[in-house]
Amino acid sequence: MMTSAEAYAERLFGASLSTYETFSTYVGLTLGWFAALADDGPATSTELAARTGTQERYCREFCEFQASLGVLTVDDASDPLRRVFALPAGPAEVLLDVQSLNYLGPLTRMAVAAGRRIDDLLSAYRGGGGVSWEAFGDDARESQAELNRPWFTRALGPALASVPDLHADLSRPGARILDLGCGGGWSTLALATAYPDATVIGIDVDAPSLQLARAAAAAAGLGDRVDFVLTGGEDVPGPEPYDAAFAFECLHDLPRPVEVLAAVRAAVRPGGPVVIMDEAVADEFAAPGSEVDRCMYGFSLFICLPDGMASTPSAGTGTVMRRPVLTDYAMRAGFAEVSVLPIEDFSFFRFYRLS
């Protein structure tokens, strides 16, 4: 609890420093400075600027800033132009390794996406309405897809296999699986990879995300067992029933979650599993809140809540969708029970089964 001016001043100063670090990291990723150090080895600012086609003076300021943060290492040359900067293996993994469960480089893109729309966000906060996912642009959609990619690619199959009855449903020969709000398609491809006898249909309302998904499917050689459909959750493609349905980190974004859950329930065969993966926030509000809750409030205020409020009518859920809220939505959609699946340590997420 911040009870003194001095304590809060120190906290706000640290938060401002973290903000500039976030934007600096975004710049280093976007301009290829980090990648060039990782791929081609240590360099002076002059060498790094030449490798990346950028301006040396700005490159030098970036390198010195990142070195002052302790991210880059540097020799102690007295001449600034002779200092050699290097990217250690740990930060390189976090920033650049798309297969690592520590991969967080794209997190900076979500912050920048929100910053670009700050005037629109302020307008919504004052007068209502929202800012659509489309308006947040490529930084938001690609950040979302890339942050979840390693978890879906490496961990989703084993996580689902650890729940025997769910695994049995998904392993049915010729199973049809619905992936609601599939975004860039990594969850769809993970399901198709884990269950080679299944056909997986991913649906989303964002056309550019589905372009990313189709390209990823083609690159993975899974184009014959996955399909991507541009549609909202209230209009689930038919007419054949699905054996299972998933909604990975998207229900809290939907303006009309009850209607979507009702449509999914009607589209899945009787007894077929409906699984919601969403943020593992606390069941009840608390102040101070957990680190997870604080992080999700940040996403909610600047991205997810404005997205959900961009369409009317809207439930206005936001990222901090607590278990009682999801249970209420499910019951109103016609489900009888909401249970938590025994899947733990899956990033910031919790898995719910609706039945």
From TrEMBL:
The keyword Cytoplasm does not apply. Keywords: Methyltransferase, Transferase. The keyword rRNA-binding does not apply. It comes from Microlunatus aurantiacus. GO terms for biological process: methylation. This is Class I SAM-dependent methyltransferase. One of its GO terms (molecular function) is methyltransferase activity. Residues 177-272 form the Methyltransferase domain. Pfam families: Methyltransf_25. Signal peptide: none annotated. It comes from the Bacteria.
